[in-house]
Design a protein that fits this description.
397 residues, alpha/beta, 2 domains, 3-stranded antiparallel sheet
Amino acid sequence: MNGPLEGIKILGFTHFAQAPFSLQLLGDLGAEVINIERPGTGDFNRTFLSEEKLGGESPFFLAMNRNKKSVVLDLKKPEAIRVILEMINDVDVVMSNYRPGVLDKLGLGYEELKKVNPDIIYCEALGYGSTGPYAKLPGQDLLAQSLGGYANICGREEMPATGGTYIIDMYSSMLLTCGVLSAVISKKDGRGGQKVQVNLLNSALHLQSQELGYYLNTGKIPKRPGNHTGHVMQESPYGIYKTKNGYMSLATNASEKVKRFGEIIEVDGLPELMTDKPTMLRDRDKLYALIAPALEKQNTEYWLEQFQAEGFWCAKVNEYPDVVNDPQVIHNDIIKTVHHPKAGEIKVIAAPIDFSETPATIRLAPPVLGQHTEEVLRGMGYSEAKLETLKTEGVIR
């Protein structure tokens, strides 16, 4: 069976995370993805946290670059631009996360490419937008978390905190993928190609639709908890708690069954302190100070059994070894093993979308830099003599 995007061809000018992760998902869904990389170093993520045991390949690059072909072209050379323009005739989508204007200066902007292919879908992953006071500033996940207010609703009272993953990059990647798919559907309906843009700053705001919407419509600024971690607008006992042998989370306000909650953890007086949500939110640090010591008296497994039996929402806070051995994770079969030509056997996280008839697949391991340059150009009709000329001229490596 073939993926739902079989027959869609995508040309990428991408590096780091925001656009590459989107391209990987589109590749998982069946699209043919060709990513153009610079000679010598390629994607910046190829050298980030590279480890000897992975054959010099970065685990970060390997995590988001499968199902792609790597083509090395020196875009500073006019002949390389001519090669790209030939590719455009046979491409459905172009994706880039270069800074605004970079591809335009090379003659590869939207207006130029749609002269070659009027139905081209041209997708740009940007930092802050293509115009405006920040357009030329470098866009990056931490900066977007900060400017977009996300960091200010994370952490504890004493200072803001960032997400544990590059959350704005990842969320923006999903929005970019959504934009590509929408444009593909629109094109198939006969409405032609178009430009699609997604930026990190807007993605950060969209991610906070609930929290930011609360402020916009009430004028009240959410306050971070004082001495524990939990959602900025949730009352205790919502949050993470230390147990005798680890940590657990409680995603419950316990307001309807507060008496039983107090009985389970053997803390008196909770009903008087947990009368309603506004009170519990106001006094969440006081409640935390009562509840936290009680939970430290027993193991996580004990509390899970007690709380789950009563219908309280709770979970163990897994470390990564726990995650990969979790029975539901194993059942879902989302961790796959792939053979890489340099790194050997590597484990990757598969596409998290299930299709009954057109499943997502892993067809290609993350590519070695320039691995598919000659293959792709041969497929375009380039002769061996022409390939040798391009090598001699330094257009390809």
